[in-house]
Amino acid sequence: MDLQYTPEQLQLRESVERFVREAYDFSHRRRVAASDLGHDAACWRRYADFGWLAIPFSEAEGGIGGDAVDTGIVMEGVGRGLLLEPYLASVVLGGGLLSLIGSEAQKAEWLQPMMAGELRLALAYAEPASRYDPFHIAATARQEGGVWRLDGTKTLVYGGDCADAIMVVARSAGAPGERAGLQAFVVPADAPGLSRTPYAMHDGQRAADLRLDGVTVDASRRLVPADGTEVGDALERVIDHGIAALAAEAVGAMAVLVDTTLDYLKTRQQFGRPIGTNQALQHRMVDMTIALDEARSMALYAALMLRDADAPARRRALSAAKMEIDRTARLVGQEAVQMHGAMGVTEELAVGHYFKRLSMIRLGFGDADWHAERYMAQ
């Protein structure tokens, strides 16, 4: 297994880091977070100009033909800058499902404009009673003549507050918890009967809860896998991509915390000398650095294992990565805050914001306990 970046990937990494460094500093992020939109529309269009929105999609779809490793490089930059634009929601989740099971016409109508920065997508599958089970879906999809009627509730739809179209997963047969019987649809955000409750999350990211009350969509909006793939299988694969993307984002956030904390230990004076001369703090700094390296290795491993055709092996790898990211993110985040003292949790200092984002990443797509159970089940 090759764990080295190619020259093209190194160039991509440098371009992402340069953008974060020059155009998305912490003060800019705070202004964007306080805005009505919750992200920078101009930056979203720049992502399209850079080609970031087209990375994971094939050339036949109008994309660049990259893979999860390339997406992970961008997501690591997202973590470094705490970028608020809905890259995960639109590219990895909504665009990912559309790419897997959408028709050519659907991709031309929704996926290609997203890659051009003209619209945003989202994926709605989680429900209030589902916890982390992606198949615990009670929302219904009933065919009535030439249209489908959707009813139900979706929660924690990443990017759902600003999405122009939402990939909605509902059940046409079976009971909540069953993998079979699921259907997926492209639902325009302004569809009659669809209501959204947007909100800001603990880390400043935006999401929404959806209510579908007799939403009707034409049969052409239904995502029908051409190769016989079950919608449930496609949904699970997209969520696994989301786990790998979050792991890469966590690595970027942890890298900033490690660098920031090291600089603080070198400059903060106490009793006439830098606090970094304290051996106990040096040991804790070493633990943070080791945890970062471990997280980086597991994030890359997760991205590479997404290529594995063996579904149980892929699930084990992604669950193992999520558990390791949970452990390392907790260690790095808590140590960074503690070594900065009380100022580590103030709104004015970036450290607390990185800690909040890492805390939310640990909960995304299943916490460590849930993934431990999934790992053992394989």
Automatic annotation (TrEMBL):
Any one Pfam family match given in the protein's UniProt record, by short name: Acyl-CoA_dh_M
Molecular function in Gene Ontology: acyl-CoA dehydrogenase activity; flavin adenine dinucleotide binding
Domain Acyl-CoA dehydrogenase/oxidase C-terminal residue range list: 239-372
Ranges for domain Acyl-CoA oxidase/dehydrogenase middle: 122-209
Domain of life: Bacteria
InterPro entries with a match to the protein in the record: Acyl-CoA_Oxase/DH_mid-dom, Acyl-CoA_Oxase/DH_mid-dom_sf, AcylCo_DH-like_C, AcylCo_DH/oxidase_C, AcylCoA_DH/ox_N, AcylCoA_DH/ox_N_sf, AcylCoA_DH/oxidase_NM_dom_sf
Domain Acyl-CoA dehydrogenase/oxidase N-terminal: residue ranges: 6-118
Keywords: FAD, Flavoprotein, Oxidoreductase
Signal sequence interval, chain numbering: none
Cofactor(s) in the UniProt record: FAD
Family in the record: Belongs to the acyl-CoA dehydrogenase family.
Protein name listed in UniProt: Alkylation response protein AidB-like acyl-CoA dehydrogenase
Organism: Pseudacidovorax intermedius
